[in-house]
Amino acid sequence: MVLLTTAVAAATLMAVPGAQAQDYPTRPITLVVPFPAGSPVDAMAREIGVDLRTTLGQPVVVDNRPGASSLTGTQYVARAAPDGYTLLLMTTSHLINAQLQPKPGYDPFDSFVPVTELIKSPVVLVVRSGLPVANMAQLAAYAKTHPMSFATWGIGSNTDIYGAMISEAIGADLLRVPYKGESPLANDLLGGQVDSAMMTVGMYKAHAKGGALRALAVNGPQRLSAFPELPTLPESGVPGPSVLGFAGILVPAGTPAPIADKLAAHIQRHLQKPDVKARWNELWGFQVSSVQRDAFGALMRKDAARWSAAIQAAHIKLD
After folding, report:
1. Does residue 233 belong to any structural domain of this protein?
2. Banded pLDDT at 241 (limits 50, 70, 90)
3. CA distances from 177 to 82, 89, 246 (A)
4. Engineering a disulfide at 258: which of 21, 150, 242, 251 sits with its beta carbon 3.0 to 4.6 angstroms away?
């Protein structure tokens, strides 16, 4: 009788996660974006939130928590209850911070459960239109004889690393100026307060028609379909910054696997719609991913090694 009771109790405990996933969600979900509102990543998060509200039947609140190159929002989610009601939309900075920051406040792998990769994201090197350069060779020559600033998405961000790598490749010291995300950076670049930056395709497209910005090259292994005339950095004689950025969804460590599975399935259902894939590529240059759960975790570990090599090659350290 005791053995039977113990067996029933054990079976009940094993069934709890599955039951949780079946009922989940029963209240609003918070999707934390560790960047300012108004960026393409923020717009993507809000679209995903709207779709999840429709398919899961509960509101999804997008909570922008920028600061410290995404550490503020990331640490918040790492400390959240592992119940599926607090999600993190993370980007490449999630991996970079863990390598550069002396006390990041989280482990990029052990503090979270991977849900799904969302996109790969190439970035474009742009300059203010008043700068007398039209290609990377001219930029290199100009930077060797004139002080030149390079705006980044924050200290230790992927664009900060790109800036260090470009400086080393062209043999000129670009003054890297950190911002709390891409939106404030874009405002100062348009206003002429800084000379150059790496921008997402979507942000560049939003401002390119006015003629205030000029694109010189794109990172990544191939040219963009939206700007086929734009050479890659390696084609322009600038080796190094070709690792693509990415974005994905994580939940706190300890979140039941069935809940993470359910989130991944619902999010991927939206991402793989042909109109979504085409629109995100057209608007923002995003390349939608289908990688999820354990495969996403393995991909992050691979990317972490690549970023570690890039950081060491560029001799990047936080002061």
Report:
1. no
2. low
3. 36, 24, 22
4. 21
- pLDDT value of position 306: 83
Give pLDDT, residue 20.
Answer: 64
- Backbone angles phi and psi of 244, in degrees to 5: -75, 145
DSSP classification of residue 263: H
- Greatest distance between any 2 Cα atoms in the chain: 87
CA distance 142 to 319: 27
Instruction: Let me know whether 250 and 116 are in one domain.
Output: yes
The Cα–Cα gap between 154 and 94 comes to 12
Q: Do residues 37 and 103 share a domain?
A: yes
242 pLDDT tier (thresholds 50, 70, 90): low
Residue 181 lies inside a defined structural domain of this protein = yes
Residue 187: domain span: 123-218
CB 253 within 8 A of CB 272: no
Residues 37 and 99 grouped into a single domain: yes
CATH number of domain containing 40: 3.40.190.150
Spatial contact of 139 and 132, defined as CB atoms under 8 Å apart: no
Reply yes or no on whether the pLDDT at 2 is more than 50.
Answer: no
Environment class of 82 (CB within 10 Å of its CB; exposed 0-12, middle 13-18, buried 19+): middle
Q: Are 289 and 117 in contact (CB under 8 A)?
A: yes
Q: Which of 259, 297, 287, 302 is nearest to 116 (CA)?
A: 297
32 — phi, psi (to 5°)?
-85, 130
Give the per-residue pLDDT at 115: 98
The number of distinct structural domains making up the chain is 2
Taking the C-alpha atoms of residue 35 and residue 41, their distance in angstroms, rounded to an integer, is: 8
Residue 226 lies in a domain: no
Same domain, 113 and 258: yes
Q: Please say which residue of 218, 233, 265 terminates a domain.
A: 218
Strands (E), 143-195: 149-152, 175-178
Same-domain status, 253 and 116: yes
| Strand 86-91 versus strand 245-252 pairing type | antiparallel
